C-alpha cells in the first residue's frame, strides 16, 4: 500500500501495521524521540484503523511538542457529544481536535466556507477568497493580491492536514463529505456558526431561520421558498435559481446583516428586487450566469468590496456603479451583451479603491466593451491601487497600457488581438502573470512602443500566435531573456527562424525558469539559437555553442551544441517541417525533461541516439505521431553503439519512461536500432523499460516487430497495437519466457499479418482483458505454453475475438483461467468454445 500517496475517499479499516505505517508517513521521524512512542499507541487505539482519522491526527500533530501530543491524546479519551455514536463517535472526536488545532480563527472560517458548496464539488480558492473578503477574514492584509496569496497558503495547509482534498483543477480544493458534515456540526456547537446547506426544512415558520448565519441552497425550488423569511443573523446566502423565474421584491426584506450574497443562474429582469436596497452591510455580491437589465440599485450598496457579474448577460454598467468608492474587485469575466459599450466613460475612474479588474470573455474582443474615452490613460491613472488585471482587447492601445497602475501589476492576464487563447488554449488559467498575443502585425514594433512590453518581461506565461515581422523571441521580444517565464508557446508565426539570435546579444541568461516549451506550425524554424555569440552565457549555463553560416552539409541539430534548459519539463514540437535533427551527439541541460511530444515534423528521421536518451534521465512520456520521415525512434550508429548490443548487454536508457506512444508513422521500421545492424546482434541484447506502464503502437504500416531481443518491462499494464499490417509479432524472442507481471490489458486491431503476440512463452499473472480484431493471419494468441502444457492466466476475465477468421485457439496449450466470465467471438471460422485452449 502506498501510504505516502494515500488519497482518502472511503472509510476502510486498516490493520495495526498498516495504521502505524500510515501514521508514521504523516509525522516523519518525530517518534524516534524518547517519550513519543507511548502516546502513539494511545492515539492509534483511538483512531481504530480509520485512514482519514489517522491522516488528520498525524497532520494535526506534525511538528508539535510532546506536551501537545499528550494533551491531544488525553482530549480524545474524554467523553464526547451524546448525539454522535458508533464509528462516527471516534471520527467526530478526531476531527474535533484537528479543527481546534487550527490556531488561526480565520483559517477555521475559511474551512467552513468550503462547506457551502455542493457535496463532491471542486471549489475554487478564488471563490473562497471573495467570500473571505466579505467576512473580513483578512483584516491585516493591505492588498487584494496578498489576500489571494494568504488564501492559497491556508488552502495548502488544510490539504496537508487532510481537512481539505485537492480539487479537480489546479487552484481548486474539495472537502470530504464527513469532514464537511462534522465541520458544520462543530461550528454550530462551539462557535455559534449555524449553517443550513443543501435542503430547506419542509415545515417553515418564523423561527426556522432565526439562528442561521449561513445558508447555501442549490435547488431552485428551495431558493424561492426563502422569500421574506426572517433571518436576522444571516451573514452568508448562496443560492442557485432558475432563469425562468424571478425574485419577489421583498425577498431580502428580513436579512439586514447579510455580508456575502452569491446568486447564480437567476433572472433579474427587468430590475433587481427592491429589498436589496436594505443590504447596507453587504460587502461581497456575486451574480453569476444571471440575466440582468436594470442594475442601478447596486450603486446604493456603498460598502461593497467585491462585485462579480461573471458570465451574466448585462448590456452596460450603469453610471451608478461609480458610487462604489470602496470597491476593491470588479469581475466582468465572461459577461455577454449585444455589442454595446459595457463600461461607460468615467465609471472606472470613480472606483478609486479598485485593486482587481477582470474583463475576459470568450466572445470576440470588441473595442466597444469600453466607451471611446473609457480606456484613456487619464482614466486608468485614477486607479492607483490596481494590482490585479484580466483583460482582452482587439489591438494594443498605447492609452490602455501606458500608465503606472498597469506597469506595477502584481497579477495580470492580458490578451491582445483575437480571443484564441481564451477559447482554445486554456493552459494559461492557473498562471499569475500572463500575456497572450494573437493576429498582430509587426508585433515587435508595437511592443517596443507600449508598456505591454514591461508586462511581458515579468510574465510567467507567454503565448504568441499568428504574429508577423519578428524573427526570434530573444532578443527581439525581450532583450533580458524572459527571466521569469515558465511557459512559452509560439504558434503559426511564419517569420520566426530561431528562438534566440545569438548574434544580437551580449551577456545573457535566457529562459532560466522555463518549464514548458510549445512550438507549433513554424514554417521557417530550424534551430533554437542561430549565430555565434561569444559573450552569450547560455539559454542557461556555460560554454554556449551555436550554429553558424558555415554549417556542414549534415543535418543541423535543432538543439545545436550545448543549449541548456535546466528547468524544462515539457517540450512539444508540432508541424515544424524544417527540423531534421533534434540533438547532436551530445546533450546537456535537459535533465528535468519529463514529457516529449513530437507531431507532424515530416523531415525528422529519429529522435536521438542511445547516448541522447541516457541524458534524459527523467523522461516519463514520449509521444511521436504523424512524422512521415521517422524511420526509427532510437538511432544506433554502428561505429559508436555496436558495443551496447554485444551478447548479454542490457539497454537501460529509459529508466523513468512510463508512457510510450507511436502513432501514424508511415516509415517507421523499428523502435530501436539501425537497419545496418544485423537482427542476430540485436537479438542478443535486452531492452529494459523498468517503469513503462502503457505502450501504444498505432498506424505504423512498416514496422514488423517492436523489439527483436529480450524484453523487460515489469510495470507494463496496457498494450495497444493497431493498424500495423506488417507486424508479425510484438516480440520475437523464442527461447525464454517473457515475463510481464503487471500486464492487465492487450488490445490488437487490424494487424493482418500478426501470427501471435510472441513465438515465446508469455507469463502475465495479472492479465484481465484481451481484445483481438481483424487479425487475419493469427492462429493463436499465445503460441507456447509452459512446461506442463498449460497456459496459466489466473486473472483473465474477458476475451473478445472478432474478425479473426483463422484463429484456432487462444493458447498453444490448455488455458487455465478460473476468472474468465466473458468471452465473445464472431466471424472466426475455426474457433469454438470447445477448441483446444478454451477449455
Automatic annotation (TrEMBL):
InterPro entries (UniProt xref): Apaf_helical (IPR042197), At4g27190-like_LRR (IPR057135), LRR_dom_sf (IPR032675), P-loop_NTPase (IPR027417), Plant_NBS-LRR (IPR050905)
Single GO biological process annotation from the record: defense response
Keywords: Plant defense
Signal peptide boundaries: none
Keyword Aminoacyl-tRNA synthetase belongs to the record: no
Lineage top rank: taxon: Eukaryota
Domain named Disease resistance protein At4g27190-like leucine-rich repeats: residues: 569-718
Entry keyword rRNA processing: no
Protein name from the UniProt record: Disease resistance protein At4g27190-like leucine-rich repeats domain-containing protein
The species this protein was found in: Saponaria officinalis (Common soapwort)
Lineage: Eukaryota, Viridiplantae, Streptophyta, Embryophyta, Tracheophyta
